[in-house]
Amino acid sequence: ASPVMSRASPGFNSAKVSSSVSSLLQRACAELNPGLARLMTGEALQGETDRLRGRIRQVYDRLETQLRLILREWAVTRVPGPELGTAAAANLLLATAEGRIHQFVRSEFRALPTNSWNDQWLALERAVFR
User: Which segments of the chain have a pLDDT < 70?
Assistant: First the structure.
């Protein structure tokens, strides 16, 4: 087990968080559905209704809430607690995912959002779960 994982609660696995973010990058929109990636970045929403923009905002809000819940589950068993609060950590992880999706769209779908994800996840994991 990694040192990060061994300090966490027995039921916690940071892979839950990585899987949530990776799923957004890979399955939910980006690599398998470039059109949805364009929606998620707002690029395809020029001139669209506020209702559709609200739905995209809601998707991100729900993902951030899910990340906060996973992180909170982990944080309550930590003594001492994590240096980065659960809200800030969830926001950092979501911002990373959003940035990767924006890069994918900006590159005209050539720079896959999961390129180097495992290496970047290791850096994020050390920052969030130390």
Answer: 1-13, 26-30, 45-48, 79-81
Torsion sign across C-alpha atoms 75, 80, 84, 87? positive
DSSP 45: G
Specify the DSSP element, H or E, that contains 21. Answer: helix 15-23
- Of 28, 17, 27, which Cα lies nearest the Cα of 86? 17
Q: What is the pTM of this model?
A: 0.78
Would you call 118 exposed, middle or buried from its count of C-beta atoms within 10 A (0-12, 13-18, 19+)?
exposed
Residue 124 amino acid letter: L
